[in-house]
């Protein structure tokens, strides 16, 4: 037996993508998922995604972090899954699909995938920092000199602090570059390292920038490229009509013989 896979990336956040419409991928095998994501002994990725049929939606996306565990919502992974669905002929230019945090709509416009995110009801303040859920939990800290920051060490210290050590959190460091642009670097739980981009993290940072007065759409620079976040801010401090916009590409495809795993 062999596993056929595709490799996708969205602003440098990379995923092993598997067409699991026939339900033949052994998804309960945490060690296998972890192995496939291993950058030295496996294919290498920040996460693994299964595209599955669903009776009520165009498809369902099931996301695993690189540690092999089921993750929460993944914004870059979702954009990649929409691109994959388009390439498989499952959708045309519009999709309505199910992810870990519920229903999402998306549009394909040439290189860009526009992904609708769930509404965000509230943003918690923790000292000078912020904490919110955009499908995945995100801690947001504004800094100066984000390029020189030790994101691994600083991110880890927050992710493993008393409050977060049990369930973990993703940790974002943000710098304002102009009236309409921020620079975001993210330490991701489940990968337990910095990634080149985190879609739900970028969304969280753009919303906090919105709280501080930045107008929608917010342009976001990440190590792996550029994204855009559009949103509508409600007077009670919540957000709706949130869109994450950016590229998603297929990089290669292949097979892994199961006996080698
Ligand atoms: N890279 C993802 C986030 C994954 C979230 C994951 N690290 C978790 O908290 O389970 C993104 O583009 O949104």
Automatic annotation (TrEMBL):
It is found in: Cytoplasm. Pfam families: DAP_epimerase. Belongs to the diaminopimelate epimerase family. Its main location: cytoplasm. One of its GO terms (cellular component) is cytosol. InterPro entries: DAP_epimerase_DapF. It catalyses: (2S,6S)-2,6-diaminopimelate = meso-2,6-diaminopimelate. It comes from Pontibacter actiniarum. GO terms for biological process: lysine biosynthetic process via diaminopimelate. Pathway: Amino-acid biosynthesis; L-lysine biosynthesis via DAP pathway; DL-2,6-diaminopimelate from LL-2,6-diaminopimelate: step 1/1. Catalyzes the stereoinversion of LL-2,6-diaminopimelate (L,L-DAP) to meso-diaminopimelate (meso-DAP), a precursor of L-lysine and an essential component of the bacterial peptidoglycan. This is Diaminopimelate epimerase. The record marks 138, 188 as: Could be important to modulate the pK values of the two catalytic cysteine residues. Substrate binds at residues 13, 65, 75-76, 170, 188-189, 199-200. Gene3D superfamilies: Diaminopimelate Epimerase, Chain A, domain 1 (3.10.310.10). The active site is at 74 (proton donor), 198 (proton acceptor). GO terms for molecular function: diaminopimelate epimerase activity. It is an enzyme of class 5 (isomerase).
């Amino acid at each position: 037996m062999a596993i056929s896979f595709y490799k996708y990336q969205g602003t440098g956040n990379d995923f092993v993508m598997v067409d699991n419409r026939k339900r033949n991928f052994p998804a309960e095998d945490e060690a296998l998922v972890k192995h496939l994501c291993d950058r030295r002994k496996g294919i290498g990725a920040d996460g693994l995604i299964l595209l599955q049929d669903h009776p009520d939606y165009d498809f369902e996306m099931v996301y695993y972090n690189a540690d092999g565990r089921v993750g929460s919502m993944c914004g870059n992974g979702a954009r990649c899954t929409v691109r994959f669905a388009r390439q498989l002929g499952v959708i045309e230019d519009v999709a309505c699909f199910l992810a870990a945090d519920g229903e999402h709509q998306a549009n394909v416009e040439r290189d860009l995938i526009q992904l609708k995110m769930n509404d965000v009801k509230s943003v918690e303040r923790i000292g000078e920092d912020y904490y919110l859920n955009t499908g995945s939990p995100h801690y947001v800290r504004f800094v100066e000199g984000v390029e020189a920051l030790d994101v691994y060490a600083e991110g880890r210290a927050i992710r493993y602090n008393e409050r977060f050590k049990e369930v973990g959190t993703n940790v974002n460091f943000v710098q304002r570059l102009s009236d309409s642009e921020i620079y975001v670097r993210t330490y991701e739980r489940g990968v337990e390292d910095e990634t080149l981009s985190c879609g739900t993290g970028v969304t969280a940072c753009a919303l906090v920038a919105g709280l501080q007065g930045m107008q929608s759409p917010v342009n976001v620079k990440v190590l792996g490229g550029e994204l855009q976040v559009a949103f509508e801010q409600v007077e009670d401090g919540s957000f709706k009509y949130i869109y994450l916009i950016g590229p998603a590409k297929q990089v290669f495809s292949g097979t892994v013989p199961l006996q080698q795993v």
